Here is the input.
Amino acid sequence: MTLEQGKPMKEALGEVNYGASFIEYFAEEAKRIYGDIIPPTLSDRRLLVLKQPVGVVGAITPWNFPLAMITRKVGPALACGCTVVVKPSEFTPLTALAAADLALQAGIPAGALNVVMGNAPEIGDALLQSTQVRKITFTGSTAVGKKLMAGSANTVKKVSLELGGNAPCIVFDDADIDVAVKGSLAAKFRNSGQTCVCANRILVQEGIYEKFATAFIKAVQSLKVGNGLEESTSQGPLINEAAVQKVEKFINDATSKGANIMLGGKRHSLGMTFYEPTVVGNVSNDMLLFREEVFGPVAPLIPFKTEEEAVHMANDTNAGLAAYIFTKSIPRSWRVSESLEYGLVGVNEGIISTEVAPFGGVKQSGLGREGSKYGIDEYLELKYICMGNLG
Ligand SMILES: NC(=O)c1ccc[n+]([C@@H]2O[C@H](COP(=O)([O-])OP(=O)(O)OC[C@H]3O[C@@H](n4cnc5c(N)ncnc54)[C@H](O)[C@@H]3O)[C@@H](O)[C@H]2O)c1
Ligand SMILES: O=CCCC(=O)O
Here is the structure.
């Protein structure tokens, strides 16, 4: 993964464990796919609910977590008795093939897990048009997710979508500053900022803005950009030239509208697709950095006055995947968590994904949930059986 996608070795090893955790979790969960017996309304009847595999699953996955985004789909699909055709990202085919090879070594029967590579729209269309494929599960951009959702209509497939985010990270005046800096740094710069749950907008209450900005910049300065195979590296390159150009476009847009670069703000001297860890101040809601997912190592700081204003700004987006808040107040933690229109909320914590909890978004960040006991339902059909005339 480090060689293919660029993430530092420590993060790649973390992803190996994270990826494996979905296989382990769903191997266990397979034992708990219980049906139901429903008390009948007529005494000569017995009513049952069976849970059965949905059928062949088409899984289309992104490059940013080239292993875990596959196992988070394949684990529950196999646990339910489905077979899977995986279409990995064209940028990370080798990780997918390595995973498939490990699956064969582990004894998963040939044909249960398949990996297909090539032209993405062509493979996508073949999966969409097939009546044998009963479910499409997709992780990737919102634009492609919408196409797949529309394309599934023709054969009325089940669809799960894990799409883009625009995560707010709200730092209140009453936050523990060390916890807030550590949490926001992790939430922002994981995988060079190329994570759907990365903090995309750091909203900072005005009373703590200067203090937080100073401490945050100091922490960002400690990130070491370089070759992920070197142990000291904490940030690798971006995935490709297009990703760097997107970051540049967002930075130019922000500075042309009055934002100020507090740190970084340009390509790294290492060249290629390395970009400097960047902090941008005075970002406002008319800038691309506020409105869209930058998917790079850029932390926009946005000042706010009141809790109400912060919640309004946080929800002012079509995305609704992850959000983070930093505060020492328990009542505020509850109030704000409940008001945020997001599928996941981290309170005083910047890394919250785990195989045991449901992962997924609201609004245009997706449909359905992955991981946890809720993730298994996505690969099951319910069958109601009514046994009558029992005397
Ligand atoms: N919500 C989540 O869980 C989650 C996780 C990871 C990434 N993402 C999102 O994914 C995006 C980055 O990943 P990406 O650049 O690989 O996304 P992408 O949508 O460009 O590609 C994702 C996958 O879709 C395939 N694809 C592209 N066009 C297709 C088509 N017409 N038909 C069928 N398949 C097609 C690609 O080849 C790739 O395998 C970001 O927006 C990020 O937020 C979301
Ligand atoms: O980028 C998306 C997945 C990252 C995660 O599972 O935390």
Remarks:
- The longest strand covers residues 46-53.
